[in-house]
Amino acid sequence: MSPPSIKRSLGQQVNLAELGIELAACRKLPAAKEVLVVPRKSGDRKKLEEAIRAKGFAVRAPKGMSRPLLVKIYRVDKEIGKDDLGKSIWNQNPELRKLVTEGEWNEQFHPSFVKGRREFDDVIWVARVTEKVREALLKIRMLNIRFDRCRVEDYLDVSRCYKCQVWGHTTKVCTEQKETCGHCAQEHGGKVEDCPRKSTAPPKCANCARAGLNSNHAVDTFKCPAYQKAVTRYMRVVNPNI
After folding, report:
1. Does residue 172 have a pLDDT over 50?
2. Residues facing 109 on adjacent strands
3. For the chain, how far is it from start to end, CA to CA, in angstroms?
4. Where are the alpha helices (DSSP H) in 126-219?
5. pLDDT at residue 38 is higher than 90
6. 141: Cα within 13 Å, side-chain hemisphere
7. Separation CA 227–CA 90 (nearest Å)
8. Phi/psi of residue 220, nearest 5 degrees
9. How far apart are CA 206 and CA 147, in angstroms?
10. Which of 86, 88, 193, 205 is the most buried (most CB within 10 A)?
11. Which H helix or E strand runs over 123?
């Protein structure tokens, strides 16, 4: 069965309303003839698996299907290392200490890597966190770190395929046969700067054009409805309780 057929058959045979299960995501996996089904509440996963198996479907629950929660902290002095970052945040932000305990902070806040340009004096720190620590940091929004005020946001690692332009997978696993231009949304490959319409036509979003939405914007703009939908889907797969 193709992924659309699987999804359609699941809808006909598995009564989610009767089971009291709300889905965070239900979409085809581009590299396989499978459908990814994620319950909004992690506690419903086992019940959903059993219900699907009872209807004769094969269920595969891969390890690590839930991605880690990540936050990014802007404009951190580049001299602050991995070990000092957590200590500085904890010691300089009394609002944080009202929301989590010191033990929770030390166990659930893990600086992972930095992003930024070498010539700058500050960097963006990306940290792996739990749901509780994430909620605390996003509630505060601005952190005191040494002599700086640093903004905190979710770090959203949403990939875009440069072959079909769809958000959520990479070119390596794309199953589309034809290439789509990232500038004009026509069926031709190559880099955006090499598009024959680059100098004569404004950008057109291939994803919004396919969905029948206003496509008069670049495919990679953060305000694009297709991108915003991909971000929401990503966050719900990362954490079904969000």
Report:
1. yes
2. 129
3. 32
4. 131-140, 206-210
5. no
6. 1
7. 34
8. -105, 10
9. 44
10. 205
11. strand 122-129
Specify the length of the chain in residues. Answer: 242
Q: Which of 59-68, 167-176, 213-222 has the lowest mean pLDDT?
A: 59-68
Alpha carbon distance 40, 200 (integer Å): 45
Tokens coding 192: 């955006």
Look up residue 72 and give its two tokens: 């990014």
Residue partners of 179: CB distance under 8 A and separation at least 6: 163, 164, 187, 188, 189, 190
- Model's pTM, two decimal places? 0.52
- Cβ neighbours around 241 below 10 Å, total: 10
Mean pLDDT, the chain, integer: 87
CA distance 47 to 230: 26
Residue 223 pLDDT > 80 = yes
Distance of alpha carbon 209 from alpha carbon 205, whole angstroms: 6
Spell out a b/e string for 74-105, using b for 16 or more CB atoms within 10 Å of the CB, else e: bbbbeebeeeebeebbbeebeebeebbeeeeb
For residue range 179-189, list pLDDT tens digits in order.
999 999 999 98
Q: Which of 232, 80, 234, 71 lies closest to 141, judged by CA? A: 71
